[in-house]
Amino acid sequence: MNQPKLIAFSGSTRAGSYNQAILNVVSNAAESAGATVDRVNLKDFPMPIFDQDLEASEGLPASVKALKERFAKADGFLIASPEYNSAFTPLMKNVIDWCSRAETEDEPSLSVYSGKSTLLIAASPGGLGGIRGLYALRSVFQNISVTVFPSMIAVGSAYQLVDESGTVTDEKWKGRLEKLATDYVDFAGRLKG
Ligand SMILES: Cc1cc2nc3c(=O)[nH]c(=O)nc-3n(C[C@H](O)[C@H](O)[C@H](O)COP(=O)(O)O)c2cc1C
What we know:
Helix 1 packs across helix 6. The radius of gyration is 16 Å and the shape is globular. With 193 residues, the protein is of the alpha/beta class. Strands 1, 2, 3, 4, 5 and 6 form a six-stranded parallel sheet that branches. The protein has one domain: Rossmann fold (3-Layer(aba) Sandwich), CATH 3.40.50.360. It has helices spanning 18-32, 52-58, 62-72, 90-99, 131-143, 171-192, and strands spanning 5-10, 36-39, 76-80, 117-123, 147-148, 153-155. The protein binds flavin mononucleotide (FMN). The site of flavin mononucleotide has 15 residues, from helix 1.
């Protein structure tokens, strides 16, 4: 089985993000399971709100081209996203939308997504952990030809489980996230063939 190349990013770039904290656990565990993980901070890829007139007049912004290049190299995604008003974040949607656009007429549709897989997780100070946002995100990825790993984890009451340095201190949740990451690496590797 081929070990997958994964790309990891959080739908929150907030300092002290709970989602970044759980993503770090999952990224470390995925590496331990044999995957390579390209860790991306979306703050390093600032992009305007998607605008089809801007795209028509100027093409894709440099940040979008650069992020698409990183996506293109990956077999799968490790994604943690907060829930905002019962959906995933506008940052996440904006990145998905820009990166779905072709740079040239001969670039295949959804080239950086098609045939890949993703793991989806969330964290929230609230009790539901952001699970509603994950179902919305799941639906989007399924419709852009990404196979979504069946299991998802939404970590509730995250302020009790993550310390001020952004480390997950709760061993039970850490273990669950690590197991999920290990299972996903196996899945992504099989999908890669
Ligand atoms: C605009 C907005 C809407 C929010 N809506 C929800 C929500 O629907 N469900 C929820 O669990 N938390 C909600 N929250 C709280 C976030 O879960 C919380 O800010 C969390 O810390 C964001 O993730 P982060 O720590 O990774 O930045 C909302 C926060 C914002 C800013």
